[in-house]
Design a protein that fits this description.
It contains 2 helices and 8 strands. The chain is of the alpha+beta class. The strands form 2 sheets. The protein has a 4-stranded mixed β-sheet. A hairpin with a 2-residue loop joins strand 2 and strand 3. This is DUF3304 domain-containing protein. It holds the Pfam family DUF3304.
Length: about 170
């Protein structure tokens, strides 16, 4: 391995860090709003991880690094992968009785589901974009927006109430 002077090494390191910071400054957050009675255990948008556990009828976020293209284009989509499960369980038996604990864990795991879908990104035209917000709806339906306005603001484009009734059956 060739010798690199400390000064040259520091200059290269500085350039790399500056480049990463410039990319991060252009990237937005990944936020989620859960309109269902299930917990969202974790989710990602185009492979970029968001946040772990959004409880029923709650929002959460903080995942970093989603940058919509500067120009929206027709047919633009994102792939969202997510896991649903129970938000909490009142019947946790503790860890002392391993048999009861394992039975409880199997019951919780049996309710966990993996999902993946491709969602159209609405036209954001020349508006400023601020990452992406994923709305998790009943029947494993999703909506996304790149709006900079917070959920509930008059300008926010998705008006879906946070507390949605669960349908008795979902379309196939």
């Amino acid at each position: 391995m060739p010798d690199i002077s400390l000064r040259r090494f520091l200059l290269i390191l500085f350039a790399l860090v500056a480049g990463l910071l410039a990319v991060a400054a252009q990237a937005g957050t990944i936020y989620g709003l859960n309109h269902t009675h299930w917990a969202i255990n974790h989710f990602s948008v185009d492979g970029r991880s968001a946040v772990d556990i959004i409880g029923p009828y709650q929002g959460g976020g903080g995942g970093w690094g989603y940058s919509p293209p500067a120009q929206w284009r027709p047919g633009m989509t994102v792939r969202v992968d997510w896991e649903t499960g129970v938000a909490y369980s009142d019947d946790f038996p503790g860890f002392a009785d391993r048999t009861k604990y394992k039975a409880w864990l199997a019951k919780i795991d049996a309710q966990t589901r993996q999902h993946s879908t491709v969602v159209p990104v609405p036209d954001y035209g020349s508006q400023k974009v601020c990452g992406i917000t994923v709305h998790f709806l009943p029947c494993d339906q999703l909506q996304v927006t790149t709006s900079c306005y917070p959920y509930g603001a008059p300008e926010y484009p998705i008006k879906t109430p946070l507390h949605l009734p669960e349908p008795t059956s979902c379309p196939k």
